[in-house]
Amino acid sequence: MTPIEIKRGDVVLVAFPFVSESGPSLKRRPAVVIQSDRYNRRRAAVVLAAITSSQKQGELQCKVLVARDSPAGQQAGLRADSVVDCQTVITLPRTELVAKIGTFPSDVLAQIDRALENALGLRGAPPKPSRKTPG
């Protein structure tokens, strides 16, 4: 099977690992490619953020809301009002990508970048003090 050509910001369908009370399973879900295009061209794996229709508020600074009927939702191929959950990030083999269904525009991708920074503590976190060894 030939891997799907992807770019950062593409929305793809994947068999996403899902854990519930009844145990682990796979569900076909949309996800957004968050890996850089440099690595998209060279690696056999791809880094994705989950997209869900669950509107649970939770950690809003780590999520991006996208309405299905908005221009961004239509361009992304979303079938429901959705949330990009930047706390749910996964690396999968490219062969696990089922189909590309759309692409997020650059303004939504910028929101995803900010949500990833918040989720991963990449910006604004105070540096840890260094320990000096007595000596």
Could you explain how this protein is built, in words?
The chain has 135 residues and is of the alpha+beta class. The protein has one domain: Roll (SH3 type barrels), CATH 2.30.30. The protein has helices at residues 37-42, 71-76, 106-120; strands at 10-20, 23-33, 45-52, 63-66, 82-93, 97-103. It has a 6-stranded antiparallel beta sheet with strand order 4-5-3-2-1-6. The protein starts with 9 loop residues before the first strand and ends in a 15-residue tail after the last helix.
Itemize the secondary structure elements and their pairings.
Blueprint: E1 10-20, E2 23-33, H1 37-42, E3 45-52, E4 63-66, H2 71-76, E5 82-93, E6 97-103, H3 106-120
Antiparallel strand pairs: 1-2, 1-6, 2-3, 3-5, 4-5
Spatial order of the strands forming the largest sheet: 4-5-3-2-1-6
Q: What is the terminal separation in angstroms?
A: 60 Å
**Sequence of secondary-structure elements:** EEHEEHEEH
Shape: globular
Uncertain stretches of 5 or more adjacent residues: none
